[in-house]
Amino acid sequence: MSKNSLEERLAELEMRLAFQDDVINTLSDQVAKQEMDIRELWDAKRMLHKQLKDMSPSNIRREEDETPPPHY
């Protein structure tokens, strides 16, 4: 194997490594952002669930509590 060929292969490997490092860092940042988004969504869901539970009960009665219609 010639010295030129070996240097070209080494340069190719170094470029690939640099590209892969960049991709890994980009993906890591994206995963971190998505984790924060998911946490915000879970907090919002929890808050909405609490608000729904705290709301006054509906004026609609359960089916068992309803009086039968007059034609019965």
UniProtKB/TrEMBL annotation:
Pfam families listed in its UniProt record: SlyX (PF04102)
Keywords: Coiled coil
InterPro entries tied to this protein: SlyX
Signal sequence residues: none
Coiled-coil intervals: 3-30
Keyword Lipid metabolism: no
Entry annotated with the keyword Methyltransferase: no
Record region (Disordered): 52-72
Family to which this protein belongs: Belongs to the SlyX family.
PANTHER family named among the record's database cross-references: PROTEIN SLYX
HAMAP family recorded: SlyX
Name this polypeptide is given: Protein SlyX homolog
Gene designation per UniProt: slyX
